[in-house]
Structure formats: C-alpha cells, structure tokens
Amino acid sequence: xxxxxxxxxxxxxxxxxxxxxxxxxxxxxxxxxxxxxxxxxxxxxxxxxxxxxxxxxxxxxxxxxxxxxxxxxxxxxxxxxxxxxxxxxxxxxxxxxxxxxxxxxxxxxxxxxxxxxxxxxxxxxxxxxxxxxxxxxxxxxxxxxxxxxxxxxxxxxxxxxxxxxxxxxxxxxxxxxxxxxxxxxxxxxxxxxxxxxxxxxxxxxxxxxxxxxxxxxxxxxxxxxxxxxxxxxxxxxxxxxxxxxxxxxxxxxxxxxxxxx
Length: 261
What we know:
Keywords: NADP, Oxidoreductase, Rhamnose metabolism. The chain is of the alpha/beta class. It has one domain (8-196, 228-252): Rossmann fold, CATH 3.40.50. It is 41% helix and 14% strand. The chain has a 7-stranded parallel β-sheet with strand order 3-2-1-4-5-6-7, with helices on both faces. It is globular, with a radius of gyration of 18 Å.
C-alpha cells in the first residue's frame, strides 16, 4: 500500500541523511517531491552531486521531483519553495521540515556565530518554512500534514550541544503550538525525535571505534538508527493512517531514551 499516493511533499535538507531518506521513501509511497538543499558542492571527477543522486533515485521510482537550492534561514526560501511546488505540482500536501545543522562545540567557548547560525537554520528556518507552507495549505482548503525533525536532544542535555539542543526543543514546541493554531484548518503538525542516527552530521563524532561501541551499547536494539528508520515514521505521520495524530512527538531511537543503564 502506498501511503502518500497523489500527495505533494516538500522536504528541507533533502540531499543527505534523514532528509534524503524522507524524500525517497515519500516517493516510494507515491508522492511527488520538492527537495530543498543548500550548498551541494560535492561533484568532482565526474561524480554526481548528492542532490543529483537523490533526484535520479526518485525519478527511477516513477515520481516527479524538483530540486531547489536555498538556505531555510532566509525567510524568502520558504516562499520560494511553496511557489515552486505549486508551479510544478499544483499544490502542497505535506511538509517535512528537516533542515538542520549540529556543529559540536564545548559550551564555554562556543563562537557566537556558531550559536546564531544553528539557531537560525534549525529553529528560525523551521518556523519560516512551516508558516509559508501552512498559508498555502489554508488557501487550498483541504488540510495537510507538517512533520518537523526535532531530536532526542530536545529531551536531554549534551555537553557539546548547548547551542543545538535548545533549537530542537524549540522545533518540538513549534509543532505543538502549530497543532493548536492550524488544527482548525485540518492541518496536522507533529514531530519526530530521532536518537543517534548515522548521518553526515555525526560522522566525525562517531569516528572513534570506542565512541561508536559506547553509543551502540546504550541502545536496547543494539544498533544505531538508519535514516530510513526516521523516514518511515515521517511517512506514517504524513499519511491518512495518522489522521487523528496532531501535536505528537514520536521518539525514533531504538529505546535509547528509556534505557537508564
């Protein structure tokens, strides 16, 4: 069963990691996809860029796809994404507000610019894009689904993440408030809270075999998460199977949060 048959999905931060998996799994479930990405400059020596690869993968699934570069920290980016989706596909049914950064740094000497940039991309960006998409959904008059990528870090502290964890708590809170504000228009707003998912964001942090073994050992399922593990939950929350789920936060962590050992 294709859970998003005939739907149009916008995903931010969609060229890599969790965002890429969301884009591909949404397409696999029948959605046409607009992918937002930023500064994809990995091409070289004949290789495709990350965004070229994910676009090709979606096209191979028989779905339509548009890629649009832009920094979600710029309020105009959300407006551009909506305009491009409507122009290409005629509507917007789902937003996966996923774009985020996580530059690890000790609290006492976090550069002010790192703090500002993390706040602007993770929280401000989620706000701008959500607002732009919600306005379009309201105008369309048939509801919609917004799923934001928060994090287990919204619920726990991190000595190297004092500039990051508040943004993910903010994304979670944003979805709660939007669930109330947008529910009357049939727009459902939820978040996913990934635990430790192996992506580019944490590759350096997990490069140590000792650190990797420690992190796996904390997860009751005995492994780190994969981007598709999160993407499948986003697809569910975006689908009609979750039509009465609004204002929820879904932990996708293999049991990490509840393991106190």
